[in-house]
Amino acid sequence: MTAFALDGPADRLKAALPRTGGLLRSAADSVPPSGLVLLAIFSVQLGAGFAKELFTVLPPSAVVFLRIAASALILGAVSRPKLRGLAWRDWAVGLGFGLILAVMNLSFYEALARLPIGIAVAIEFLGPLGVAIAASRRRVDLLWVALAGAGIALIAPWSESAAVSWLGIGFALVAGACWAGYILLSAAAGQRFPGTTGLSFAMMVSVVVVAPVGITTGGTDLLQPWVILIGLGVGLLSSVIPYSLELQALRRMPKHVFGILMSLEPAVAALIGLVLLGEFLHVQQWAAIICIVAASLGATRSS
To answer: CB within 8 A of 114, min separation 6: which ones?
Structure first.
């Protein structure tokens, strides 16, 4: 019997993760960086699609709890944050990062329950679009603002027969605002926490924030093995896998090219909704998504 066999489950997991991570990095190095970004985008939206499938069994808040708990468990095993010796400003950034991560996911999943996935992602994308425009401050940015505004006008349910709801749009806008805050706090956390420990810390904070409402609304349904399995898959697809792929891509490509590719996310979300969930969008809704994608592409190039 080897010494490795005498280790506990947590020790065996830690020993296996570096080897697994090395294999993943080797595989990622063989893929062009643009391919890694596209894989990350598809992974995120596929995770959102599977999460929406769970809404028939669990309310959105319970699905959010499953996703964040799975992500926190995996990231915590890979990159455990060291809390000793942190200054109060480090704590403030970490706690704020975790809080906004929790609110962003809760509001986005509530929007997802009321809107087609492509529409929800397109509206949420106004958050990073706003950050890009704020960083640029050129006159041409007025064009991107107008395009984004046209997209929202095309999405808005001006008639009672429209397939979207004002409440869903409101939740998506809150998620977009939180995404903007996420970008800023992620940068701040990157300066104060080494590696991915800042994100790991934020995920743990998010679990604490989301757990009361998620467990209350989910109840005993959260204990079903197949629900836990899908929740783990959603956590992997929505957080762990895309984050790892994006980090690998950013090491090998300029940031502005990365941002341009990420601008395709609303269109990919609409395609995932069509194929996986059978969500057929009207021509007007596709036009809205194209407007927001074009505004994001333009703002990214300008900034």
So the answer is: 164, 165, 167, 168, 171
Q: CB of 94 within 8 A of CB of 189?
A: yes
Question: Would you say residue 7 lies in a domain?
Answer: no
Average per-residue pLDDT for the chain? 82
Element housing 112 (H / E): helix 88-112
203 Cβ neighbours under 8 A, 6+ residues apart: 68, 71, 72, 75, 76, 98, 101, 239
Neighbours of 153 (CB within 10 A): 12
Please say whether the beta carbons of 94 and 205 come within 8 A: yes
Output the pTM of the full model: 0.82
Distance from C-alpha of 288 to C-alpha of 149, rounded to nearest angstrom: 9
- Asked if residue 16 is part of any domain, the answer here is no
Question: Is 257 a member of any domain?
Answer: yes
CB atoms within 10 A of CB 63: 29
In a domain, 21, yes or no: no
Mean pLDDT of 173-181: 91
Q: Residue 21 half-sphere exposure, CB side, CA atoms within 13 Å?
A: 15
In the predicted structure, residue 10 carries a pLDDT above the cut 90: no
Boundaries of domain holding 270:
33-302
Q: Say whether pLDDT at 6 is over 80.
A: no
The domain tally of the chain equals: 1
What is the C-alpha separation between 134 and 130, in angstroms, rounded?
Answer: 6
pLDDT at 90 (0 to 100) = 79
